[in-house]
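[step 3/7] fold_predict: job queued, chain A
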Amino acid sequence: MAKIRGDNHAFGWPGLEPRWTHGDKDGIGTAYSAASRIWFTVWNGIVTEVYYPTVDTPQMRDVQLLFSDGQTFFHQETHYLETSIQRMPSCLGYRVEGKDPEGRYAYVKEIIADPHLPCLLQRVTVQANPEWLSRLKTYVLCAPHLDVGGSENNAFVVHSCGRELLMAEKNGTWLALMCSTPFSRLSVGYVGASDGWTDLSDGFQFDW
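[step 4/7] structure written:
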């Protein structure tokens, strides 16, 4: 059984008016399997929309990586970083390579749809120069737009199967975000008020 951690509620309701990403795309992906009903698009190195259970039903705005040393910088994949994207051989998956222009760190992402489950998979490898290795922190930012809309999405930090994960729900449709290496901290909030991006951009640390 899963349960929500604590009784804390995010501040700043209702947050900024939700918006979709723009229509420019670098690619579209799915799994070559009749059992898979996940479709996704990529742009500028990140996953933008994820579609389920049909190709015309987007359930997520985007998911991307954020980087900070906690003191001097805060980067998101779509700004400042240099990224390149290539389609993976023999499948509609993508390999993204990104780097800090100042050479402090670099990363690689491989993005595919699971052929048997309604699940999007990303394998992420981050490398940093020795002087930055202990200071660099990597974050995952997800913007659910369940039931084809960003308003009235409900998000939770949930404890399940011995680990914590993020979940969102709207009108009976659920989204879950987890990592094979457990997250050290998790947060949900209203965009522009109490969300993780706003928290990190204001002081470079994950405080809320």
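[step 5/7] annotate
The mean pLDDT is 91.
Residues 196-201 form the longest helix (6 residues).
exit 0
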